[in-house]
Write a structure and sequence with these properties.
Arc Repressor Mutant, subunit A, Alpha-Beta Plaits, single chain, elongated, alpha+beta
Length: 152
């Protein structure tokens, strides 16, 4: 990956809807080499997809919480079952496995506190292998979905 590939990635992180013509102009390439590089980045798995970033509050999900999960035990089967169950809950926007304790960090979105309590009682507390859930409410996102720092 060279500096031009990094420019392409930076531009796409900034605006994934720009046309190929705009992208080529911004990275100072002609259309054909820019298109070729873009397809290679997609084929090699560097670019893993495109999506629209939607403001959660605008679509009725103005409540977010962080849920710290401590597992009872960490066998391969329990971890796999837990992670499959987490992936099946659409209100979990991010799930990270951590070193040490707690074992996982989940970012959960809900309409409001009552909705979160319902998700917690019906879905989160029923996750397999869980010893303890600790929850904190998100007051405000300070840095959210930042692009990777590819140019420095």
């Amino acid at each position: 990956m060279d500096a031009i590939d990094r420019k392409i990635l930076s531009e796409l992180q900034r605006d994934g809807r720009q046309t190929l013509t705009e992208l080529a102009e911004r990275v100072q390439l002609t259309m054909s080499p820019c298109h070729r590089r873009l397809r290679e980045l997609e084929r090699d798995g560097v670019i893993v997809g495109y999506r629209a970033d939607v403001d959660p509050a605008s679509v009725g999900f103005g409540f977010q919480s962080l849920v710290f999960v401590t597992m009872r035990e960490s066998t391969r089967d329990i971890i796999a079952t837990f992670e499959e169950a987490v992936a099946a809950i659409p209100y979990i926007l991010d799930a990270d496995r951590l070193f040490g304790e707690p074992d996982y960090l989940l970012r959960v979105v809900a309409r409001d506190l009552d909705h979160f309590q319902q998700i917690y009682d019906e879905r989160l507390s029923a996750l397999p292998g869980v010893q303890r859930l600790n929850t904190t409410m998100v007051m405000r996102s300070v840095v959210d979905d930042r692009s990777l720092p590819l140019d420095g």
